[in-house]
Amino acid sequence: MKIVVCIKQVPDTTEVRLDPKTNNLIRDGVPSIINPDDKAGIEAALRLREANEGATVTVVSMGPPQADVALREALAMGADEAILISGREFGGADTLATGTTIAGALKKIGYDIIITGRQAIDGDTAQVGPQIAEQLGLPQVGYAEDIRIEGEYAIVKRQYDDCYHIIKVKMPCLITALSQLAEPRYMTVHGIADAYAKEIKVLGYEDLKDMYAEGTIGRTGSPTNVAESFTKQAKAKGTLLTGLTVDEAVQAIVDKLDERHLI
Amino acid sequence: MAKNVFVVVEQRNGAIQKVSLELIGEAKRLAPQFADDEKVVAILLGDKIADKASLLFEGGADEVLCVEDPMLGTYVTEPYTKTIVNIIKTYEPNVVLFGATTIGRDLAPRVAGRVGTGLTADCTGLSVDPETKLFRMTRPAFGGNIMATILIKEKRPQMATVRPGVMKMGEKCDASGKTATMVPSVLEPSDMNVEILEIIPKDTKSVDITEAKVLVSGGRAVGGPEGYNPLRELAAVLGGEVSSSRIGVDNGWIEKDRQVGQTGKTVRPQLYMACGISGAIQHLAGMENSDFIIAINKDATCPMMQLADLGVEGDIKKIIPKLTEAVTKLKESRVVDK
Q: A20 vs B167, which has greater pLDDT?
């Protein structure tokens, strides 16, 4: 059984701050990490490999050459193989073109079960997993909290807003992982040494171009355009009360609640 | 030519979800900006569901397209995708809106991929460009740090998922005499490509904080699971619910479905009380549209205190219990008055 995990290298958005003067994003010094949902996907894949003899874990990422750092980390966690999909022609892709690009590569790589993170913390779209499944014509199960394999089926605990479904799906299939799917293990010293001994295979445009219909990848394959981006404007100032005693503070709040008919 | 604003209605166990009525309300506001005769069309899928169309007409839909099939009773990706793609190909909508729920975010990318059009995720603002008539879809990205406005210039339909709780429902419309247009199902047994073995309801204690009129929300300063108890007591006397910033959820102090923010829920209650929440951008993204915001914090300079309509510098552990007491007293005094 070949388990393929799709991962994305993302800026750690919890570390991002706004410049209080210009209201611009401060990107300098923001560390790059494996997207948290994807990392849970790697861990889940490693556990499936441990529970299913003969299974292998291949980690795939689409991104610039420096995304190999994320792939090395996945190798250090214990993945068997790492592949980077990288090329200028793939750049500027929206979720549809990204899904098409990765799906084309996956056809070459081969798979029995594909795991992606539910969503990346920089884009927050949750679209690329389903887009890959659509391009490959595979059944998908999103928002997975638990995965196990029974013969040629995967049994998945799928989270909804108000309930869970236990879903039986025949492989090949695609599953999107929630962070709570599996707490990622730490890299071991041995694993890190191994990770640097292993080769990261790079698939570029020349390797993959036969997989794509004309105009389906990169910027030209992307129906959406970003018209503008902006940081939010602060709204009108409210009242700020400082240096009150506890009783004064309580009274000030009660008065306001009463005035607004909230009591 | 692509025409009309379509809303994919979400039903769970036959119950129409609030987000769908929010989207119909928003679609009604947008439709005339595209063209005078642009209509709001709701897509209603289910097993025996056509009688629910009246709710959608009352919400402002001009037309309801209904597909009934046992395979559509409970949401499954493929039967829903195939059915909606068929409707899109038949009716050629200009715009299709989905709720950005765990269902909508599973379904919409699949539909967009099959139709080969663009999809903007998790929108919080929608408008129409007055000149080009293009749909302007605005969404937070980068953990809520940036807002981006997305256009789909050539492909149709222009598709978006929209965050629940952001758009407002419209005024109630007269639904008398209106009935759904039935569309025949195109599904075959092989379209059910997964099997639902079991449906497990979530803890019945779980609440939908997006429905609450008052939220008393705790941050780092609550300090632990017990720290939410005084907040619960205050929420109870104010007729509200307790919610939390991400820290409380990450630390396991409180349930995930009470989290407000970019990775939690978007809320717009009448009152949001931020108790010891400093106001990371990710959190503000989920609550800044609340009608009235009161913040209590030891740090008067933190972002939440700047955002709040009323910011009170102080220690929540001292202020909240006394506040609960004061509110209770005021309420009791009013009962005696009557």
A: B167
